[in-house]
Transcriptional regulator, GntR family (Cribrihabitans marinus), 496 residues
Amino acid sequence: MKIDPENPAGLSAQIAQAIKDAIVSGALIVDERLPSESELAEQFRVSRPTVREALKRLAAQSLIRTQRGATGGAFVNRLAYQDAYAQQITTSTLLLSMNAVSFDTACEARFALERACAPLSAERRAPDHLATMRAEILRQAQPGLTDEAFCASDVAFHRALVDGAGNPVLSYQLAGAVEAMQPLMNMITFTARSRETIVALHTALADAIEARDGQAAMQRLGDLETETRGHASDVFAARKAGAQTRRT
Amino acid sequence: MKIDPENPAGLSAQIAQAIKDAIVSGALIVDERLPSESELAEQFRVSRPTVREALKRLAAQSLIRTQRGATGGAFVNRLAYQDAYAQQITTSTLLLSMNAVSFDTACEARFALERACAPLSAERRAPDHLATMRAEILRQAQPGLTDEAFCASDVAFHRALVDGAGNPVLSYQLAGAVEAMQPLMNMITFTARSRETIVALHTALADAIEARDGQAAMQRLGDLETETRGHASDVFAARKAGAQTRRT
DNA sequence: AGACTTTTAAATGTCAGACAAATAGAAAGT
DNA sequence: ACTTTCTATTTGTCTGACATTTAAAAGTCT
């Protein structure tokens, strides 16, 4: 672990990278205690605040956790699925909101990935996954639901579908794709008619999953994608036309 | 943005969360300059080092960038795909290496997601995607290639396949799944015979993509998954038997 | 001896002030 | 008009200090 004081990246960034490499390479194992801040400062020949900034960088990525007190210090953190989910969702959401990703592109990615889960979910889903899906469908059919609540329920429905595959790695990868869509979906108003269509498709999808028919589930997801993208393009077209009308 | 000095989470963590929320919610837009560290310290009623630790947390997630000098400061960063990829890969790799995810689970997730890309890639792949795939196949066929180099080439091959879909969101989501597998793959030794099989399957896959036959590409990916998992379980079984033999 | 209380040491969390380095803009000179 | 110098601002880093938390060691009482 060598540090170059002349490197424009900054000392704390270099130290953070060095420790990160040690963790990723396996030189530092889970729950291992790092040297104290003072010792690290000595080793790297920098001051304690600089070391602290480096440690905060790692803490922000959940790579380490810190504990105060006599036996405290910085410990290599076991990256829990929950932490990884949260990071994944934040990153995905920002990526979509900041890069002018078109609704179509995001939608296509999401449904393509979900279709990948469908056969596995049809095969392995437990009763509670089905129960969650059915419950969310009921919620979505309720009149007077706000668009936001409708979208949130939609996300919950699809997460149940994904989790049904019983593969935590898949669930992790999909979490970002599904949740990051929510802000984009929230920009769309769902008419009573379109909600009916979606609820019908969700029901057909849940039926396919219940029947353990993966192929049918994939087809229903394709239908849902077509419906969602068609509805979204209608909404955007209407909005554009409205804007032009107001302008004239 | 209110800060509670009694909160055990720590002042810097709270400040980081407050700014993060402002960015995610859109209150702070891309390229907007945050107040200087001194001003932030005043606003939050904390010292400058505390503010700095908070800013480093955000910088570690590529949410902000800092610039020195007269007109310098902290700016809201446009999260580039490249940065997001890197984070995604790091997180995925750690998630797999730290949580005793079985080879089968990771492999299943990876190939399921890749199959989702296959139809899109078959439809849209540009000539250079195909060229990359062919080039990597040639590399994989070279004798004397180390296992690591073989795995790296495998990753490059599959990335070209994924990128062929022309959907950056999909590429982003898949980057983690494909790259994170590499450390797991590196634990496997590939015999000349298994390499031959893989190269043949890769060739068939590239042929399917070239012929714009998405269904065939999905089937070839299925074959590749079967081969990979079968070979891996053989290697693990042999290793286990070897260990027991040595023990007796 | 055993259980409880107090002390102590070690570590992180925070603060204050200072200086160095980089950078852009203003001011001065040619 | 152009170039150079100066200056103000801001981040990067250092030094030193104190507060807080925590667990273990030391001490005390029954």
About this structure: The radius of gyration of chain A is 24 Å. Chain A touches chain B through 57 residues (CB under 8 Å).
